[in-house]
Amino acid sequence: GDSVITVQLSEEDKVEDDVVFYLVFTGSTVQHCTSTRKINPGSLETISPGHDCCETVKVALCASREGHPVLVVAEESFQFVQDEAYDAAQFLATCAGNQQALNFTRFLDRSRPPAADVDFLDEKVALAFRHLKLPAEWNVLGADQSLT
Q: Which residues is 27 bridged to in the sheet?
């Protein structure tokens, strides 16, 4: 999630001032609805939502106009893919409370990626973490609540 998506409209679907377009992402367990921004008469853009798993979802481009029913203009598939940020979030969630998990930070120290890359990775891991499916009893300290 959190990437720019550009939608190219066909000639008959060009953006009119009183028409509002939005995208509906339908996955196996979660549905997202996002607004769009008109770039020009033939293009829209939005930000892809964060999602709770890696899967292919159905995306419907919908149009609404006051006094008219909502129309599905087009449908397509969209794939949420596994990347290093998703892997890192899963690793950190799985290793909560495990002191050995700190080796991950030691790896980052040794490899010394550029600061901008670390900041970007941090943002992506935080986004992935927000969308992980975690048990209700999960917490960052792990099972041992006696840690200070």
A: none
C-alpha dihedral sign at 133, 138, 142, 148? positive
Model-level pTM?
Answer: 0.67
* Residues 1-38: tens digit of each pLDDT: 778 899 998 877 776 778 899 999 999 988 999 999 99
**52: burial class by Cβ within 10 Å (0-12, 13-18, 19+)?**
middle
Domain range spanning residue 93? 84-130
pLDDT band of residue 85 (cuts 50, 70, 90) is confident
The answer to whether the CB of 58 falls within 8 A of the CB of 80 is no
Domain identity same for 89 and 75 = no
Q: By three-state DSSP, how is residue 104 classified?
A: helix
Q: What percent of the chain has pLDDT over 70?
A: 82
Task: Select from 80, 97, 119 the last residue of a domain.
Answer: 80
